[in-house]
């Protein structure tokens, strides 16, 4: 079978994750907890998984998480802008509470997951995000048929991958977790993605945070 195994990994924690502040495509670094989470994840995967390639968002919170893994397994990280978080325009830099007060109409579309709605200030719709992420996964996975690769990215990217692998639409209520440095296992074929395992945080010994938009 023409298949590629994928480990899809969300970046480690940042200070803005803790504050529930939207990062989007702003380049916010990992905090100390996030750096430790990345080390634990890298050590666990180095002990149990063989990887042939590591790709990551070029935003530092994902790229540093990927570099931590790469140093453990002896690979280089290839940056790809197609793995970036959703562009949130004027939402970026605001907390969830601030968005509700300052941009109530847009906050309504955000809560309802309106697929074609675009955040003000050059944001990205859910439809555009899905198209970007899935095209990137197709491109990268097709290079590694018969191998296993890691994709290190963001909560919004992980959400798109879960929905694609389980055939859920963009507006379906989310009932799955997206913790920092969780390892999510997928199988890619030219026909699409399928789910193997989700939200493995066995490498962590503390409670993880779960946001979809940062």
Q: Could you explain the architecture of this structure?
A:
By secondary structure, the protein is an alpha/beta fold. 37% of the residues lie in helices and 17% in strands. It is built from 7 helices and 6 strands. The chain has helices at 15-18, 32-48, 60-73, 96-102, 104-112, 126-141, 155-166, and strands at 4-10, 53-56, 77-79, 148-153, 183-189, 192-200. It has a 6-stranded mixed sheet. Helix 3 links the parallel strand 2 and strand 3. Helix 2 packs parallel to helix 3 (60-73), helix 4 crosses helix 5 (104-112) and helix 6 crosses helix 7. The N and C termini lie far apart (36 Å). The model has no long low-confidence stretch (mean pLDDT 95).
What keywords describe this structure?
alpha/beta, six-stranded mixed beta sheet, 7 helices
The rounded Rg comes to 16 Å
Total of helices:
7
Give the overall average pLDDT. Answer: 95
Helix content: 25-40%
- End-to-end Cα distance, whole Å, is 36 Å
Secondary structure layout plus pairing:
Elements lengths: L3 E7 L4 H4 L13 H17 L4 E4 L3 H14 L3 E3 L16 H7 L1 H9 L13 H16 L6 E6 L1 H12 L16 E7 L2 E9 L14
Parallel strand pairs: 1-4, 2-3, 2-4
Antiparallel strand pairs: 1-5, 5-6
Condensed summary:
The protein has 214 residues and is α/β, with parallel strands linked by helices. It has helices at residues 15-18, 32-48, 60-73, 96-102, 104-112, 126-141, 155-166; strands spanning 4-10, 53-56, 77-79, 148-153, 183-189, 192-200.
């Amino acid at each position: 079978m023409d298949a590629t195994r994928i480990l899809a990994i969300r970046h480690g924690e940042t200070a803005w994750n803790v504050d529930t502040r939207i990062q989007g495509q702003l380049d916010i670094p990992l905090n100390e907890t996030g750096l430790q989470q990345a080390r634990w994840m890298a050590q666990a995967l180095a002990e149990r998984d063989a990887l042939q390639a590591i790709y990551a968002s070029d935003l530092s919170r994902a790229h540093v998480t990927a570099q931590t893994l790469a140093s453990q397994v002896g690979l280089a990280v290839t940056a790809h802008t197609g793995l970036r978080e959703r562009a949130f325009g004027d939402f970026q830099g605001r907390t969830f509470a601030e968005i509700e007060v300052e941009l109530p109409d847009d906050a309504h579309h955000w809560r309802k997951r309106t697929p074609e709605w675009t955040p003000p200030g050059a944001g990205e719709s859910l439809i555009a995000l899905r198209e970007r992420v899935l095209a990137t996964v197709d491109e990268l996975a097709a290079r590694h048929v018969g191998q296993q690769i890691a994709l290190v990215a963001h909560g919004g990217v992980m959400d798109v991958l879960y929905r694609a692998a389980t055939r859920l639409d963009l507006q379906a209520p989310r009932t799955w977790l997206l913790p920092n440095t969780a390892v999510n296992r997928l199988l890619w074929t030219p026909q699409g993605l399928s789910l193997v395992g989700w939200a493995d945080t066995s490498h962590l010994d503390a409670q993880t945070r779960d946001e979809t938009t940062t």
